[in-house]
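Troubleshooting log. The previous structure file for this entry was overwritten by mistake, so regenerating from the original sequence record. Sequence copied from the archived sheet and checked twice against the printout by T.R.
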Amino acid sequence: MDLSGIISISGRPGLYKVIAQGKNSIIVESLVDKKRFPAYSTDRISALEDISIYTYDDDKPLKNIYSDFYKKLDGKEGVSHKEDMATLQEFLSDILPDYDEERVYPSDIKKLFQWYNILFKADVLKPEEVEKKKAPAKKKEAPKSKEETPAKKATAAKKKAAPKSTATKKKPAAKTSDGAKKKSTTTKK
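Regenerated output below.
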């Protein structure tokens, strides 16, 4: 499961995939309706790969939690974020029994389930083993030979034999109205 390039923008519902980078913004595409728009540096943007859930021992990355969700649900869609809070907390405590209930707010739990379902519908939650099996095997390229062909040798010899001249040519001196020669300051290449 690869969550790189997927972000959340504060104040906007849903999740977004980073498509391109502009001068003062990034171009994002909604995972829900596929609409594209710019997100600016003034927007509060959070990358999903950087988000983790508080536990009593150590924080657990979102990628690992969603991986556990996927296994528990047998690769199916998760519980709706609109369910009652007791159901959501019970499901989360089955997956992550030591999550810190004081620091993980109910709104965070709802967002966790909402994001899981968005990622599931966008087909992003494939386990890494499945992704590796589906990826085609890379072909090995033959190592390039360092030997030069006769045509390349001849071209290289010509370049070495006839270097270009960089000397400048001077204009002949011009005569002034009184008959004296005036020195020219311009050069010709």
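The chain has five helices and eleven strands. Archived copy saved in two places this time.
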